[in-house]
Write a sequence for this structure.
């Protein structure tokens, strides 16, 4: 059966002081979580790499993030000559503000009583809340683009262009993963999606969508191994190369707040939102009162740990590989999965007379046909050229045709092999020269 539409009448009726308190609570949560996340990231990475990590500032190094923030605030804010000053100063603000705005529709818990006022633990909600999150987070990339363009330098501009291409590529796959959730929940409201997962979380029924979203959210936040807009090994620092002091800190704050936002969105869409996990859900009071805030926070920190884990484990991808993975793997897989979910919903929900066995057989046949077509297309694209006799293979091209330097062991013997090959080709050309066909030339021949 189609889930019932959420009751949005509860939103917009709170007194002003309660709305301000909710907004302040969300702001404090989004400011404190990045501070703790930076400390946890340095501690966890040190543990994974068998180092000590920060242990000087405060007990056990707990005040290291606060010390780093104070140090950035006290640094001199330099504005390089030749920048577009208004846009240069506005770009960090454009990056930070949308990151905070996106959290307005994330539900922290159910309806509770606050000083006698019954209110949901959510700032606001709307029938298209998830689309609002997509729209607001898309605006944040303008801050990166404007920062790179207004700096008047080459490397920041390249980082800004990379960020634009990443957002365009991976938001398509992210939106398609959301489409499967909308089909199954029957609503785009975040509170309605959480209500639709009362019996079973969507991560079980929509596992491919969950995996596609997890990869897309890492690329969306420019985090390792997808931190190509700020690749320090090739772009100095990327789009924020010319920034310092608090302006640089605002870009870092926007990155970590975006990590919290996409983690909270993944929790809401696929992991039941604020609902208690399986063993704890047997307790009747697990999903009542203020306990759901704890379950929601634990799930968000689980995703933040995955961000840290990926940064400590995987090397940075090459840019063309990253873009090819988004356009050639994620987007086709997301499209195919949305078609499967839509077909199952139409056949099983909207057409109850159809047997489940018929649906399973149809899906298996469709997947087999897709695999056969994919194999045939791949074989048709393979080059069918035959190497000429005596031709020398170019060892300077790696897989995919990208030029790479020759190996040291081949530098000494490669000229000799090319010289031998050229002599062989010349001798064959001489011996295979056609004979004269005129009568006078044949008569003079010995």
């Amino acid at each position: 059966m189609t889930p019932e539409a959420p009751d949005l009448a509860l939103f917009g009726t709170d007194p002003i002081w309660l709305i301000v308190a909710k907004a302040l609570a969300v702001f404090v949560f989004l400011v404190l979580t990045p501070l703790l996340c930076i400390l946890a990231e340095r501690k966890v990475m040190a543990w994974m790499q068998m180092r000590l990590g920060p242990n000087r500032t405060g007990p056990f190094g707990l005040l290291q993030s606060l010390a780093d923030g104070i140090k950035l605030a006290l640094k001199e804010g330099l504005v390089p000559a030749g920048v577009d000053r208004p846009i240069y100063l506005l770009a960090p603000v454009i990056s930070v503000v949308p990151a905070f705005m996106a959290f307005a529709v994330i539900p922290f818990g159910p309806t509770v009583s606050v000083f006698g006022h019954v209110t949901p633990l959510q700032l606001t909600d709307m029938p298209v809340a998830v689309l609002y999150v997509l729209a607001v987070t898309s605006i944040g990339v303008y801050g990166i683009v404007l920062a790179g363009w207004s700096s008047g330098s080459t490397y920041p501009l390249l980082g800004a262009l990379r960020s634009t291409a990443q957002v365009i590529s991976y938001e398509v796959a992210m939106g398609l993963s959301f489409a499967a959730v909308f089909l199954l929940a029957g609503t785009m409201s975040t509170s309605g999606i959480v209500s639709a997962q009362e019996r079973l979380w969507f991560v079980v029924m929509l596992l491919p969508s969950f995996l596609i979203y997890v990869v897309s959210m890492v690329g969306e936040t420019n985090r390792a191994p997808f931190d190509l807009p700020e690749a320090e090994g090739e772009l100095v620092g990327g789009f924020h190369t010319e920034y310092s002091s608090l302006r640089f800190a605002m870009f870092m704050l926007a990155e970590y707040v975006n990590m919290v936002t996409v983690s909270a969105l993944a929790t809401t869409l696929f992991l039941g939102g604020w609902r208690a996990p399986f063993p704890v859900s047997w307790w009747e009071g697990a999903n009542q009162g203020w306990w759901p805030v704890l379950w929601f926070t634990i799930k968000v920190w689980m995703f933040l740990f995955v961000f840290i884990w990926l940064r400590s484990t995987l090397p940075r991808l090459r840019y063309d590989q990253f873009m090819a993975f988004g356009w050639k793997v994620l987007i086709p897989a997301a499209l195919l999965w949305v078609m499967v979910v839509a077909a199952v919903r139409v056949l099983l929900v909207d057409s109850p007379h159809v047997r489940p066995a018929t649906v399973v057989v149809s899906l298996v046949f469709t997947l087999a046909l897709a695999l056969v077509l994919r194999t045939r297309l791949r074989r048709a694209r393979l080059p069918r050229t035959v190497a000429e006799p005596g031709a020398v293979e170019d060892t300077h091209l790696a897989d995919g045709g990208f030029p790479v330097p020759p190996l040291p062991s081949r530098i000494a013997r490669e000229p000799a092999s090319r010289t031998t090959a050229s002599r062989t080709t010349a001798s064959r050309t001489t011996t295979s020269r056609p004979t004269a066909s005129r009568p006078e030339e044949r008569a003079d021949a010995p």
The chain has a mean pLDDT of 81. The CA atoms of residues 73 and 246 lie 5 Å apart.
